[in-house]
Specification:
alpha/beta; 18 helices; seven-stranded parallel β-sheet; single chain
């Protein structure tokens, strides 16, 4: 992070605020636009953070089904957040926190708690000013830490949604409170192409901007998602009807990868435009050389592997967002194209695992909750363990590896996790002691960063290259230390432990070329600039495995 004063902003200043709103339809990629802009500003020496305000009533997405909302991203401080925070961290290589993701539920919860405490002095509590004041307080919170030159706020949902109204009103008020030099609104819309007419259509953009204007907010910049380049006359038309300057109409063409978007935005001079409008003098060009190096490695692979991802939410790829992105980072680090073969855990059994898994160069058994697909995951572990295929188990995937080992190597044929079988005779995976009295579901798992010590002379130590590591968690169950000696006697090595609690964090099998399971979620810490070593090494092991396969074939 740059110290203030090296960034083109005066040494003591208030941060500048940028809001990113969306219109016409959801899924236009506000998170990617926000992250790309943040990346460009960061590459100019500015210190930037991004936060997301979500209009839904859940306090956080922690209790949402992955089918509903994709992956739940966990921060170091244990917040269960929207998956866009993963993009922020992956693009910027900085950590986010609870303060970076606020929902309507949290806002109302705070206001209602204040009301019960009598903090409103007998006043009627209303959306305006109480809810909007609480939104504004939360928006300004990160800026007030003094750590940032620029705070980008993404507003979830679309303008015009009932739930979004208080947020848009808060933005309107803030522009008034802070002044237009300090606050800028970027509106992301869709400019569809009608193939029958052979034309790009601006009407949806006009309507969505009008909706924003009706709420009192005039966007300063309009970013247009489009499948075709925006010609000058279309830009002029959007500028004229939406009341912005023509160079504030930015084209956002569909990209081959999300990681191209910062460079596309740089070409469109979005960063320059933003700084000009916010009255920030910064003559440093965004230095994107390292980023381009990553893209070059990603787009010109010299190796090619196929990884099987065994999970129960495979119909919705967003449920495994961070894992997919981690493979992109690790693939680029190895100059290797990683193709993911999605394997539904419910479709796997002992007798079809050879058929489903034999062509793969590595298998990742994914995190998850509940009984569905469990036996498929265990069958996958058995197959890769017996056939020396590189294995990587994450959280539930690690737990399933422990169950498989107990059943088929130690000989505890009825071994299970008490999550799925509370009455099991051999609870090799059991509820953590402190979880036994917990009844609430929201925010009560073992969440966030915990320290772990890797054991000398193990694969884990080799991969991390150090003894003390910290990784993020999201689980209730754990390896049951009562069985530790049985595991060790049968050849499993416990290669990572939390020294404070004694909880097992990493397991491995030295008799296998590459078999590692982790109780934590390494995928939450992989970034473009710092690919996670567990993914980098798993990809490497899969490349080696694919080469030995080739050799034995010839
Ligand atoms: N359901 C398991 C637990 O709560 C694993 C959780 C996960 O994979 N994130 O311990």
């Amino acid at each position: 992070m740059s110290a203030h004063g090296q960034s083109g902003l005066p040494p003591t200043h208030n941060p500048k605020y940028i809001f990113v709103t969306g219109g016409v339809t959801s899924s236009l990629g506000k998170g990617i636009i926000a992250s790309s802009l943040a990346k460009l500003l960061q590459s100019r020496g500015l210190s930037v953070t991004i936060q997301k305000f979500d209009p839904y009533i859940n306090i956080d997405p922690g209790t949402l089904n992955p089918y509903e909302h994709g992956e739940c991203y966990v921060t170091d401080d244990g917040a269960e957040t929207d998956l866009d925070l993963g993009h922020y961290e992956r693009f910027l290589n900085v950590t986010t926190s609870q303060a970076n993701n606020v929902t309507t539920g949290r806002i109302y919860n705070n206001v209602i708690t204040n009301e019960r405490r009598g903090n409103y002095l007998g006043k009627t509590v209303q959306v305006i000013p109480h809810i909007t004041d609480e939104i504004k307080r939360n928006i300004l919170q990160l800026g007030e830490t003094g750590k940032y030159d620029i705070v980008i706020t993404e507003l979830g949902g679309c303008v015009g949604d009932i739930e979004s109204l208080p947020f848009v009103e808060a933005v309107r008020q803030l522009k008034w409170d802070l002044g237009s030099d300090n606050l800028l609104t970027i509106h992301l819309t869709l400019v569809p192409y009608l193939s029958s007419a052979g034309e790009l259509k601006t009407k949806p953009t006009q309507h969505s901007v009008k909706m924003l204007q009706q709420s009192g907010v005039q966007p300063d910049i309009i970013v247009c998602r489009t499948e075709h380049p925006l010609p000058a006359d279309i830009r002029r038309k959007i500028a004229l009807f939406c009341n912005v300057e023509q160079n504030s109409v930015i084209e956002a063409m569909d990209a081959e990868t999300i990681y191209d978007v910062p460079l596309l935005m740089q070409k469109e001079r979005l960063d320059q435009r933003v700084l000009y409008m916010l009255d920030v003098y910064n003559d440093q060009d965004a230095d994107m050389e390292e980023w381009k190096g990553f893209l070059d490695r990603f787009k010109n692979p010299t190796e090619n592997i196929k990884i099987g991802l065994v999970g129960k939410y495979v119909e919705l790829k967003d449920a495994y967002k961070s894992i997919i992105e981690s493979f992109i980072h690790a693939g680029a680090a190895n100059k290797c194209k990683v193709s993911i073969e999605w394997i539904h855990s419910e479709s796997l059994q002992i007798d079809n695992s050879a058929e489903k898994l034999q062509g793969l160069d590595g298998v990742l058994v994914a995190p998850g909750f509940g009984e569905r697909g469990i036996e498929g995951k265990i069958a996958a572990v058995k197959y890769v363990r017996e056939n020396n295929i590189p294995f990587f188990g994450i959280c539930l995937g690690m737990q399933m590896a422990c169950i498989e080992f107990a059943r088929n190597v130690i000989g505890l044929t009825e071994a299970h996790s008490t999550e799925m079988h509370p009455e099991t005779q051999f609870p090799v995976i059991d509820l953590m002691e402190e979880q036994k009295t917990v009844t609430d579901k929201g925010g009560t798992m073992r969440l966030g960063a915990y320290a772990c010590k890797t054991k000398d002379k193990t694969l884990a130590r080799k991969i991390y290259g150090k003894a003390n590591i910290s990784e993020r968690h999201r689980h209730r169950w754990e390896f049951n230390n009562k069985y530790l000696k049985d595991y060790e006697a049968a050849g499993m090595v416990i290669s990572g432990v939390n020294l404070e609690s004694g909880l097992v964090e990493i397991i491995e099998l030295p008799s296998h070329p590459y078999f590692i399971g982790v109780q934590f979620h390494p995928e939450l810490k992989s970034t473009v600039m710092a690919p996670h070593p567990l993914f980098v090494n798993f990809v490497k092991a899969a490349i080696d495995f694919s080469k030995t396969k080739e050799l034995t074939k010839s």
